[in-house]
Write a structure and sequence with these properties.
about 525 residues; alpha/beta; Beta-Lactamase; Rossmann fold; Helicase, Ruva Protein, domain 3; six-stranded antiparallel sheet; five-stranded parallel sheet; disordered N terminus; binds adenosine-5'-triphosphate; binds magnesium ion
Length: about 525
């Protein structure tokens, strides 16, 4: 090499190093682009055919490709590189190597070569260190023009590997800071991470007792109950009473996302796994490590995600979407649903094996109408909350309001009670909330009157007056709707809310029963 050449190389080298440094300082978030740039620079300066960066898996010391450039880079990326390889040796010894005839080196593993068809003749590999510890390996393959790698090449690569290490450290700190920020933002949004839990009825106090016991074990828990009974709050209580209470409680609503998004939300993804996957992303399972993952509306979990969840429950392991690297996690699962999972298993829309795994410890939260002792303390709690929010000084409930609160059927349970008191605080005038402020319709109170009779299976409870008593609205349409609602509800009660059986009695399809439930707001 002439003097001019070697000078021009060092100028190029210097320029490249300065440029990489300024990139490292300006962009922490796109670590992948930066690493690709570092490897491209290495290939240009050293003059070789391909390069790759592999990260060491701390659990088994095997390595996986993070970046692979060159003719077969794309194929190489999905291959696992075992620790008994040259890259593995470099990582374990934290030392670089130059091998100009790999075929004669006993550490050379031909796995990648066989799988990609790319033949390696010469290579140079060097550890990528963070604070002195080797976290990955950078490899350069096949020096161009039939030349050999030498110590000056090694020097260049060492400088670049150090920069790659700094870039990686920066990006990692940046990522974990971002994760912390989003956790804190979530906390701020909801005021506090956990809700206040109000309970006075013997049945709920008993449940809390049981929860105290089961919280300590690591078994999965399935919480069932009608909509609005407080299933999420029970899940919080289990977490708070467990040994995991200093670790995250992560919530996922299975109904809120499409199947594809849900899978990546739960398990994370690697860059390029799908079109929008612009960078690697941790899933909720990883975020919840050592804590609890609350899977709300588990009945909505698509079948393909159900099998992946089952595997986590069995082996505590999973892969991010688009990755073959197995991740292990220590997460306790609490699932909740207002659907009849047993029925869904029979119908084939929920996996039986998953159901039995989740249902190790079932907790059924009773509807509010079956624990009336909770109504008053809950009502007082919501009154205080919404008095503060509306800046009105409510002192309590009038006798008429107390009567409505106690006698109403509360089909929407605690959520409906909460909403109704919020509305009353907005519309009412202090110091007392009156019956009419609660805006419970006459019809709903009638439904309440007929409910106990239904329960006893007495057939003559449909009093004519119940359907035509309203002075304002005596239309046939309204009366028929009221009758239809009460009758469908009665048959559902008789069949323990089994929609197939109810459909048979009513002479209609199960899907039509389900539609009626929505249309008539039957719960
Ligand atoms: N024991 C309780 N103490 C205080 N607030 C409660 C209690 N139970 C429920 N709530 C309140 O009622 C509302 C509904 O509770 P939650 O969301 O837990 O119900 P859910 O059973 O999960 O309903 P869904 O099935 O519709 O998701 C929430 O705003 C919650 O704060
Ligand atoms: Mg819920």
């Amino acid at each position: 090499m002439s003097e001019q050449n070697s000078n021009s190389l060092s100028t190029d080298k210097l320029r490249t190093l300065i440029e990489i440094n300024s990139r490292i300082n300006s962009n922490y978030s796109d670590i992948n682009a930066l690493l690709v740039h570092i490897l491209e620079s290495a290939m240009r300066l050293v003059e070789c055919e391909s390069s790759s960066l592999l990260l060491v898996n701390n659990e088994d010391d095997n390595l996986r490709f993070i970046v692979a450039l060159g003719p077969k880079g794309a194929e190489a990326k999905n291959i696992l590189v075992e620790k008994n390889s040259i890259a593995g040796w470099v990582a374990q010894n934290n030392k670089g190597v130059i091998i100009n005839d790999v075929a004669t080196d006993s550490r050379f593993s031909s796995t990648v070569q066989t799988k990609t068809g790319y033949v390696t003749n010469s290579m140079m590999a060097i550890p990528m260190r963070v604070k002195g510890r080797c976290i990955g390996v950078i490899e350069l393959l096949n020096k161009s023009f039939g030349k050999k790698f030498d110590n000056s090449d090694m020097e260049i690569l060492e400088l670049l590997a150090n920069q790659a290490g700094i870039a990686y450290l920066n990006a990692d700190s940046f990522r974990s800071a971002q994760d912390n920020i989003s956790v804190l933002q979530n906390k701020l949004k909801s005021g506090s991470e956990y809700h206040s839990f109000v309970a006075q009825s013997p049945v709920v106090l008993d449940l809390l007792h049981i929860i105290e016991e089961v919280a300590k074990a690591n078994t999965s828990i399935l919480i069932t109950g009608e909509s609005g009974v407080g299933k999420e709050l029970f899940a919080e209580q289990i977490h708070l009473r467990s040994n995991r209470n200093n670790n995250p409680f992560v919530r996922v609503n299975c109904a809120a996302l499409s199947p594809a998004l849900l899978e990546s939300e739960l398990f994370g993804h690697v860059k390029g796994a799908f079109t929008d996957a612009v960078s690697d992303r941790k899933g909720r399972f990883e975020t919840a490590d050592k804590g609890t993952l609350f899977l709300d509306e588990i009945g909505e979990l698509p079948l393909e995600v159900q099998s992946k969840l089952l595997r986590v429950l069995q082996n505590h392991s999973f892969e991010r979407v688009g990755s073959s690297k197995t991740i292990t996690c220590d997460v306790r699962i609490i699932a909740a649903t207002n659907r009849n999972l047993e029925q869904m298993v029979k119908e084939g829309s929920f996996r039986g094996d998953l159901y039995y795994r989740l249902n190790v410890m079932p907790i059924n939260v009773p509807p509010l109408r079956e624990r009336k002792e909770d109504i008053k303390p809950l009502a007082r709690f919501f009154l205080k909350k919404f008095s503060e929010e509306t800046k009105k000084n409510f002192e309590g409930f009038s006798a008429s309001a107390e009567k409505v609160l106690f006698e109403y059927y509360w089909p929407g349970n605690v959520r409906e009670l909460e909403n109704s008191i919020e509305r009353a605080c907005v519309l009412g005038k202090p110091p007392l909330i009156h019956g009419e402020d609660l805006r419970i319709s006459n019809f709903s109170l009638e439904a309440e009157r007929s409910y106990p009779a239904n329960k006893n299976g007495i057939c003559n409870e449909f009093l004519f007056d119940d359907f035509v008593s309203s002075k304002e609205d005596r239309t046939l349409h309204t009366a028929l709707t009221k009758f239809k609602t009460a009758y469908v509800k009665k048959i559902l009660e008789e069949t323990s809310w089994n929609q197939t059986k109810a459909g048979e009695i009513l002479g209609i399809q199960r899907t039509y029963v389900s539609r009626l439930l929505n249309e008539l707001h039957i719960r």
